[in-house]
Structure of DUF4317 domain-containing protein:
Amino acid sequence: MNKKEISEIRRLFTPDRCPFTRICGCYVDGEKNKVMEMKDAFLSLQEEDMFKYFDIFKKTLSGSIGKNLMDLEFPLEQESEGGAQQFLYRLKSSGLKDDALLEAFYDKVIESYREPENYFIILVHGAYDIPRRAKDGLEMFDASEDVYDFILCSICPVKLAKPGLSYKAETNTISERIRDRVVEPPVSGFLFPAFTDRNTDLHNILYYSKNPDELKQEFSLQLFGCNPPLSAASQKETFNTLVADTLLDGCTYETVKALHESLSQLIEERKDDPEPLTLMKEDVKSLLESTGADDSALEHFDAEFEQTAGDSQSPLFVSNVVNTRKFEIKTPDINISIKPDRTDLIETRILDGRPYFLIPADDSVEVNGIPVKPAYPKD
């Protein structure tokens, strides 16, 4: 799914466009016991509750594609009878009215979700009449032909409210407030099936993780039968290692600067594209070649890629491997952060046999917030 498709589904989470037919939930304690279960027609909820659920569902479809939101493709065996995809398909097709399927789903989540805290599993069923789009991009709601039938799951921590004082109107006093258990924003979730090319995609699922560096791979593997791609931090580490190990002595400041500029330019050129910008194996190789890597360095690129990235066919998201907001230089004792469009201010020199990074200090300079004057040599 791309940004536009995710936004189209998120826009449905309002009272006037609400696609939801039924909502179910299971509150699980830290000992993995089912404390409470709920089942309701979504439109029978109190309006205040409805808005709170809308906020949770929007959070479950929030964040960056490739960091918080990931398209996962079901392996073929999971689409056979008894597979994870087939189970989710039956759950969706039941409209969440099959109690046995619901209990089996809760059991699968509880078995695979490794968290010591209490949490609330929310599962909602929806149906969306997909409007056609005219050539000018406007939606034609009276020309719908297809229905997107889906389930959305949100897993929310339930934590004890912080202690404090509160005003008691009945006694007109200030005293310790009652510490309720509060349902917090979701930390994990999924949308099934995916909404790809504005239509039902039964072969994929959109997976959400609030923390892009903790994708809960065991949870994804057991519940969906598929592994999520590398986390955002792992993708960056993989890319950096691949560049350093491929270029070796050719991995200079100028080369890394050229890489950063090339990737930043790609992001700028594709900023209006709803599809995320990604790099496959050959893209990385071409990028290194375009930034000056010689033939001898590229000769062992394939071996380095296999050793660093393994046989994974998952792409590297450009937004994960380059930071377009800053350019950093680090040594064991010094960190320098520069605006990406002012890397020309950094100069490399060899002075008395030692390499240095030189930074001009003829503009305003502050040290610990105090403006200082550069120390010019005395005549």
Notes: The first helix runs from residue 3 to 10. The mean pLDDT is 89.
